[in-house]
Amino acid sequence: MMALMLGLPPTAPGSLTAPPNPREALSYLHELRRWRDDLRTVLNSADRRAQVASATDEFTGDLTLAMSLAESIARRTEELILVWDGGRVGPQQLASLAQLIWGRLPDSLGNPSAFSLSEATTLAAALEARLESRLAADSIAGSGAADLIEPLRDTLQRCRTLAETLGRRAGEADDLTQQLEAALAGTGGPAQVGAVVTRISETADLLERDLIKQTSLRTSVQSQAAELTARLSALTELEVQVRELAGRCRDKIADPPRLAVPDPTVLGCVPPIPDGPAEPGAWTKSRAELDTYRRRVDQVEAALTEAQRRFAAPLTERAELRGLADAYRTKAGAQGLAEDSALGASYERLRAVLWHAPGDLSVAGPLVRSYVALVQEALLLKGKQAGSAAPELGMKGEVL
User: Fold this and answer.
1) C-beta of residue 353 within 8 angstroms of C-beta of residue 364
2) Are residues 305 and 332 located together in one domain of the fold?
3) I need a surface site. Which of 245, 275, 355, 359 has the fewest CB within 10 A?
4) Phi and psi at residue 391, to the nearest 5°
5) DSSP letters along 212-245, please?
6) Which of 78, 103, 138 is the C-terminal boundary of a domain?
């Protein structure tokens, strides 16, 4: 990225006794605000470069004075903008603008300084130019890579931390750190230092990327192994439940599903993962083994789930048929049909099948449906008889 070049400060319009006209004031404020922002940017950049320079103390005085002037210029710019008030100015406001432009700037304690705004901008520009010239001559600050140094040190520290976690490649980060410090402490010129710092930065970025990928892979493999261990334990518990369900189904149902209950022990143990430092490719191989094992776990889990569904279905159907039969028996009793011989005989026939173990659902189902139909028919007949037995009424409600 190309560094920002500070241009000349804007020329102040008017004088202390001759206020600028509104157009001149507006143009000056526009240019001053832009120049103030540029000054802040270039001084911040100079400060960062001076902090890593080979002779940091040599830049302190100029930087301190330039920063102080920049702060005073920024405060006076805001005062000018406030008086300008979006262009709502008259002679009195224009006179105030002239006073702010050509009057003395206050120092950090609020006392009048030796500089007007115009003089302060000129001095600040001169200080910045001198700083830039001296920094450019410094072997580190003028390398063009000064802004990379602190981020590069942070990157190398992260690489060391990642390498310690992985237990490998720690020497690479240490070697790059030694190369960086040697270049910064050496006698090479700015171009040489810049080339070395740029090369180390690019190498460190690649190293960090690889270490992050390896750390992520290791974390993923560890998480996958833990998940598969938990799933294997859950499958063992599920197998016990399904075997108990299958036993009840075979005891209670005449024609139970002919289905074997899968045994999770055929899966064996979860494949081991590397413990401690491992050779390159060990974690990738481990992930491939875990992926294969996961697919086998998925198959056993699906088979157990299907067996659970198949064995539960007949027991559920039997419970539903029993509930339906009892509900209609209760309904018939509530309507005074408890002594109906036909209904009683139908209910006893279905009960002999449905409450018998092992019960034949292919026989019980039709018997329950037949009983439900008989109850509905008996209730309908009773309703018709009750309607025909009611006395007929004449036009005015008298009994005929």
Assistant:
1) yes
2) no
3) 275
4) -65, 145
5) HHHHHHHHHHHHHHHHHHHHHHHHHHHHHHHHHH
6) 138
**Helix/strand/coil for 136:** helix
Separation between Cα atoms, residue 355 and residue 123, nearest integer Å = 106
- Give 381 or 56, the one with higher predicted confidence: 381
What is the end-to-end Cα distance of the chain in Å, rounded? 112
Do residues 36 and 118 both lie within one domain?
yes
Integer Cα distance of 74 and 384 in angstroms: 101
- Between 145 and 281, name the one with better pLDDT: 281
Q: Tokens 């005015």 appear where? A: 396
Q: How far apart are CA 328 and CA 337, in angstroms?
A: 11
* CB within 8 Å of 141: residues ≥ 6 apart: 49, 50, 52, 53, 54, 59, 135, 190
C-alpha 43 chain-centroid distance: 37
For residue 176, give the DSSP letter: H
Q: Which residue has the tokens 């009892």?
A: 326
Domain that holds residue 353: 315-387
Domain count across the chain:
3
For residues 255 and 291, state if they share a domain.
yes
Query: What is the tens place of the pLDDT at every residue in 306-335?
Result: 999 999 999 999 999 999 999 999 999 998
Residue 61 lies in a domain: yes
Query: Residues 293, 323: one domain?
Result: no
Cα 82–Cα 85–Cα 90 angle in degrees, nearest 5: 115
| Residue among 124, 240, 142 nearest 188 (CA) | 142
Dihedral of alpha carbons 240, 242, 248, 250, sign? negative
What's the pLDDT tens digit per position in 108-140? 666 777 888 989 999 999 888 888 877 776 655
